[in-house]
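Lab notebook, design round three. We kept the backbone fixed and only want residue identities now. Task for the bench partner: fill in a sequence for the structure below.
Input structure tokens:
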């Protein structure tokens, strides 16, 4: 259920950790606003030490009394937060901020002919947005939960930003991070004072050095999943998940170019960008992007629009429940597959789709947006079969995995076994590939088809 409280006046958001507030003229520096799930609460979670798979740190200044002025005169009560409610609250807000950052950087990339895109050792692209999101999210999580209680496993490292010839790039990252954190009060969070320096940003990025594992907690962050889509002005995602004792317990997917309304999918993403500039921000057409989130065991997944500029992010932020499709006939199903051919076999998935009777054109999108499509019923099947030598990383799947699962879907390897997030950075022991489906019956049919087709493939 969206973030609401058990009793409130004027629909003012609940503040976690406070059970009653009366005649409040101004809320000073609330770090967590409301819970992301229903008012029927469970046992309060006892905080444990945990690590993070992500990148960035958070700050303490809370300015802008005018922003918080909207939250006066409230009366609310709550029996206490559900397990992981605080973590989910912070994660959703952090991803909302990261999406805002990415939108600005992507607009800048598209408007410039000389785009600042760099290559990593494996030749994959990385942009200012990758490092900036990692630094921002790492900082927010560190400020929210404490550096000592936190370790992060994320995609980017700090080495290429620390060299003498990377001064200009580092300056751009520092500016992007501070511009983003300046807007923290709009998201119900505190920003830094004074602004972060180069050493602070490098520290936030380098803090994301967890190796994961079977015990304890860590956050898994992919700052910009689908960087190729990002630099081309196409689909990409910001993915953040919390993993505890080897199991994903919450996930948040920010999809800035994936529209809230399914009917908008028939239009190209560049059309969304044009429309968003021409229509007032109060129009429903503004909601061209979304954030989807879920918590383990809730049996629910929720979607809210991206935060509107210069507005206070107030729960439930028009959140609506999402559910997988009820289609279990492969002939009526739509399947997703990666755009990139470098780490996935399109020929095998195409042959498999034909063998099970799939007639619709595949939905080829970059990044974990594929998981979002299935979770909200826009598609029914996601299949990814890696080429020899490619190993799937946990930050590419953790958030999407838990969101589909709580939305009623099934995600396993191609042998039908659960994905194992307890082995470190990689999804070790993966049987051939990954299959996500809208339901158990459809999933079973696809698994059988994979077994029947595999021996004749060249994978």
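Proposed sequence:
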């Amino acid at each position: 259920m969206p973030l609401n409280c058990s009793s409130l006046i004027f629909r003012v958001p609940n503040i976690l950790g406070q059970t009653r507030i009366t005649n409040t003229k101004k809320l000073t520096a609330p770090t967590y606003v409301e819970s992301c799930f229903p008012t029927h609460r469970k046992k309060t979670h006892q905080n444990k030490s945990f690590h993070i798979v992500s990148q960035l740190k958070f700050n303490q200044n809370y300015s802008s009394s005018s922003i918080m002025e909207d939250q006066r005169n409230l009366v609310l009560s709550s029996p206490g937060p559900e397990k992981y409610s605080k973590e989910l609250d912070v994660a959703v807000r952090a991803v909302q901020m990261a999406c805002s950052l990415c939108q600005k950087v992507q607009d800048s990339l598209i408007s410039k002919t000389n785009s600042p895109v760099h290559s990593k050792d494996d030749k994959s692209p990385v942009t200012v947005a990758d490092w900036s999101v990692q630094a921002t999210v790492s900082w927010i999580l560190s400020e929210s939960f404490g550096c000592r209680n936190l370790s992060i496993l994320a995609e980017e490292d700090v080495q290429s930003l620390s060299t003498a010839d990377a001064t200009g790039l580092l300056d751009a990252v520092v500016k992007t991070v501070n511009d983003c954190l300046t807007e923290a009060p709009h998201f119900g969070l505190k920003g830094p004072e004074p602004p972060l320096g180069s050493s602070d940003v490098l520290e936030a990025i380098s803090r994301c050095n967890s190796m994961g594992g079977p015990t304890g907690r860590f956050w898994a962050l992919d700052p910009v999943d689908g960087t190729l889509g990002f630099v081309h002005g196409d689909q990409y995602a910001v993915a953040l998940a919390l993993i505890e004792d080897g199991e994903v317990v919450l996930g948040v997917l920010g999809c800035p170019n994936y529209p809230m309304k399914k009917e908008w999918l028939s239009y190209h993403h560049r059309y969304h960008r044009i429309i968003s500039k021409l229509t007032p921000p109060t129009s429903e057409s503004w909601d061209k992007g979304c954030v989807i989130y879920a918590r383990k065991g809730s049996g629910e997944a929720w979607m809210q629009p991206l935060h509107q500029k210069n507005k206070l992010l107030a729960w439930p932020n028009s959140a609506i429940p999402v559910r997988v499709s009820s289609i279990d006939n492969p002939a009526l199903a739509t399947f997703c597959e990666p755009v990139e051919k470098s780490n996935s076999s399109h020929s095998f998935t195409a042959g498999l789709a034909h063998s099970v009777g799939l007639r619709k054109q595949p939905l080829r999108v970059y990044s974990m947006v594929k998981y979002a499509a299935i979770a909200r019923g826009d598609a029914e099947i996601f299949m990814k079969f890696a080429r020899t030598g490619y190993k799937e990383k946990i930050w590419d799947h953790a958030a999407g995995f838990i969101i589909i699962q709580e939305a009623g879907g099934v995600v396993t390897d191609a042998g039908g076994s659960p994905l194992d997030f307890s082995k470190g950075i990689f999804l070790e022991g993966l049987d051939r590939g990954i299959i996500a489906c809208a339901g158990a019956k459809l999933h079973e049919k696809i698994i059988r088809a994979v077994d029947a087709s595999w021996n004749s493939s060249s994978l």
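Keep this in mind before ordering anything: The chain is about 30% helix and 15% strand.
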